[in-house]
Specification:
With 600 residues, the protein is an alpha+beta fold. It holds the Pfam family Peptidase_S15.
């Protein structure tokens, strides 16, 4: 039944410490009682996340009281805004207040993405009895690994842009017109003056209390992150949840980490849907690729079915369907799974003449064969890819001794006869970021011009004899040496189309240390490093090829590594030097990419 919707009301509540929180409330024009849908957000409640969701009045017309609330210190709510600091207690108070609104039947569900997804987790952590279900979208479960840093490298472009956006809301609340205009301009042309020194002059001046400064000052997963991260508080939380992500969303690691955690222990249904989307918008075209009409967001109707199921007790048929729904790019269709796919990885070794930086024909990807195609497992590590562990040891140390199933000793004993590819990184002209999940704009773009650079190594398969379906997590294992104490590696998997155009599929970034015993000058003791790429689901058609591109920078998505070993909040461009990296590959598959090939 579709209801007429009454006029929007603005209502206020007081938190337990006396702070006033304001909300817009949308109601069906009916005398009946209804469940409540609550969204809590920091961007001014009028926007109501309509960048990705239907307007609240649409949900109200379906028989829900919809509450869009300004969090503390945002919009017109009083108090001081401190990033995520008050969301557990304020969230609990907001749920209890919403449950007791006139015409509420006492049943509350929450929805929202990004910060609004995070507020759901924090509210759920308090376990208010009225909260019956949540639909978190695109969240950072472990705030360090899933949001601020990736592989030990600071997610520069997105973190800086978001901090400037939040600072502009503070300036607006203060009626500081000059600051607001300055920040507005900066948001559209990020003020990047030093690719190594990631401190922000404009934030130092106009937002001295911004979280950005703290995030830079804590480059390791220490107690600061543990206090802030939702994963520290969710151990006893158990609710039916609809988890929503995007293949090109920068927080997909967090969405999947949380889904896996809940699916492994929950007594209630946990469903996951991942579309071909970036953080926003959720539509058919992402980057420069059109994924067809099926890629248009089904989330509003799906959420309505979810809330009808768990807030109204209506059998919507959702629980009769497989819990995992993934959009397969390339075929441009939705596929259903009983669990998130994790097929046995198939190893493709890197083969080179030593000139993979100079010509795309000089580096090849070939399947590893041991009398036939061998499914070879990379050595498993605990870190960004481990959904069961929060606040793992720093990626810069935990990945320093990784290897594949074969022992590193056996693999390296004949390296004197192995010609490596040499990668030279110049901080004056770092390899630029283009799309992916960490750049802006995000998505898939034609990147053949970047692959033509001499500071990018490329390894390409022969054209595929049949369609290839990838679904799940892809890893890359590289044996390398470097002539500096620290260096970065960026791995990008792409589709090379028959016409020669190249479109990125997924990528990974890692900040690494280089033991003195394994510097470039020795050339006999390369260190294995494992990079876990953003999970994906894609069909690569017959006639296309797969390419792995390796570089030592991806700027400004991530700050440039000066090579000195200094923390991300130390150093500057003047300190940065040229970094030379040798990547080793040979006939027994020293360096490999492990593809998650799914049987169709």
């Amino acid at each position: 039944m579709v209801y007429p919707v009454g006029s929007k009301q603005t209502l206020s509540m007081l938190t337990r410490d006396g702070v006033r929180l304001d909300a817009d409330v949308y109601r069906p024009d009916s005398a009946d009682s209804f469940p409540v849908l609550l969204m809590r957000q920091p961007y001014g409640r009028a926007i109501a996340s309509t960048v990705v969701y239907a307007h609240p009045s649409w949900y109200a017309a379906q028989g829900y009281i919809v509450v869009i609330q300004d969090v503390r210190g945002r919009g017109s709510s009083t108090g001081e805004f401190e990033l995520f600091a008050h969301e557990i207690t304020d969230g609990e108070d907001a749920v209890n207040w919403a449950a007791n609104l006139p015409q509420s039947n006492g049943q509350v569900g929450m929805y929202g993405f990004s910060y609004q997804g995070m507020t759901q987790l924090y509210a759920a952590a308090a376990r208010p009895p009225a909260l019956k279900t949540i639909c978190p979208s695109m969240i950072g479960y472990d705030l360090y690994h899933d949001w601020a840093y990736e592989g030990g490298a600071f997610c520069y472009q997105l973190n800086l842009g978001w901090a400037i956006q939040l600072a502009s809301e503070t300036a607006r609340r203060q009626a500081n017109s000059d600051a607001y205009r300055t920040l507005y301009t900066a948001a559209r042309n990020l003020p990047i003056t030093d690719p190594v020194d990631l401190h922000s002059g404009i934030l130092n001046q106009l937002a001295p209390n911004s979280h950005y400064h703290d995030w830079l000052a804590h480059p390791e997963p220490d107690a600061y992150w543990q206090i802030l991260s939702p994963c520290s508080y969710m151990e006893n939380v158990d609710l039916p949840m609809l988890h929503i992500g995007g293949w090109y969303d920068t927080h997909l690691r967090g969405t999947l980490r949380f889904y896996r955690d809940m699916a492994a222990r929950s007594r209630f249904p946990q469903h996951l849907i991942v579309g071909p989307w970036a953080h926003l918008p959720w539509g058919r075209k992402v980057g420069s690729v059109d994924y067809g009409p099926e890629a248009n967001s089904p989330i509003d109707r799906l959420q309505l079915r979810w809330f009808d199921q768990f807030l109204k007790g209506i059998d919507t048929g959702l629980l009769d369907q497989p819990p995992v729904c993934l959009f397969e790019m390339g075929s441009n269709r939705w596929r259903q799974f009983d669990q998130f796919p994790s097929p046995a990885p198939i190893a493709y070794r890197l083969v080179t003449t030593g000139l993979a930086a100079m010509d795309e024909r000089e580096g090849r990807l070939e399947p590893v064969r041991d009398g036939g195609d061998a499914a070879r497992e990379p050595r498993r590590t605990r870190g960004d890819g481990d959904s069961t562990q929060c606040f793992a040891a720093s990626d810069k140390t935990q990945n320093s001794n990784l290897g594949s199933a074969d022992s590193p000793e056996a693999k390296t004993q004949n390296l004197k006869h192995c010609l490596p590819d040499t990668l030279v990184h110049d901080p004056w002209r770092p390899v630029p970021s283009l799309g992916g999940h960490a750049g802006f704009p995000a998505g898939s773009f034609e990147r053949s011009a970047i692959d033509c650079r001499s500071d990018v190594l490329t390894y390409t398969t022969e054209p595929l004899a049949a369609d290839l379906h990838l679904a799940g997590e892809i890893t890359v294992e590289l044996y390398c040496t470097a002539d500096t104490p620290s260096f970065d590696l960026c791995a990008i998997l792409s589709e090379v189309k028959p016409n020669g155009s190249v479109y990125n599929i997924t990528q990974a970034y890692q900040r690494l240390t280089s033991p003195r015993s394994a510097r470039l000058t020795s050339r006999i003791s390369p260190t294995p490093h494992q990079l876990t790429l953003q999970p994906t689901c894609i069909r690569i058609p017959q006639g296309s090829a797969i390419r792995l591109s390796i570089s030592a920078a991806c700027f400004p998505a991530y700050g440039v590594n000066p090579g000195t070993g200094a923390a991300v909040h130390q150093g500057c461009l003047l300190d940065a030097g040229v970094i030379t990296i040798a990547i080793f590959s040979e006939s027994n598959g020293l360096s490999c990419v492990y593809l998650a090939i799914q049987q169709n």
